[in-house]
Write a structure and sequence with these properties.
Layout: E1 2-7, E2 12-17, H1 19-26, H2 32-51, H3 54-58, H4 67-70, E3 74-79, E4 85-88, E5 105-111, H5 115-122
Antiparallel strand pairs: 1-2, 1-5, 2-3, 3-4
């Protein structure tokens, strides 16, 4: 699992992980509906990768369908206290829909083995995530 983006004023992290990591660490904490949403998002990424949907891929300057991203197809918006975990599509923080007002900011890319490590790293140190 890795974190590389955040929304500072909401203390939200952008978490990317493998399907196995999602099944082990995140799905047990989600509702059946949220798990279905996550699996649907993963299936859509894999479909676009396998089909080579060049039109859709060309709209994403960060190459979200690259092999590096395919390694981490399960994406979530996670509160640093783990009180909120929402599945999301991999292109969300990179999407053109933000029109220059993207709430996500780059942060140091940090890898974690489980969600508790994320909570330990960020709880009580919200200032680390705040924009300068």
């Amino acid at each position: 699992m890795r974190v590389k983006l955040h929304i500072a004023n909401e203390s939200l992290l952008w978490l990317e992980c493998t399907v196995t990591e999602a099944e082990k660490n995140i799905y047990p904490l989600l509702s059946e509906e949220a798990i279905k949403i996550s699996k649907d998002c993963i299936a859509e990424i894999m479909r676009k990768w396998e089909v080579g949907d060049e039109e859709d891929m060309s709209q994403h300057p960060h190459d979200i369908y690259s092999k590096k991203i395919i390694k981490y197809p399960a994406c979530f918006s996670v509160d640093i206290n783990l009180s909120r975990i929402e599945p999301a599509q991999a292109h969300l923080p990179y999407s053109h829909m933000w029109n220059g007002y993207n709430p996500y900011s780059l942060t140091e890319e940090i890898c974690f083995s489980d969600l508790e490590d994320i909570q330990k790293r960020y709880t009580g140190v919200d200032s680390v995530l705040e924009d300068d």
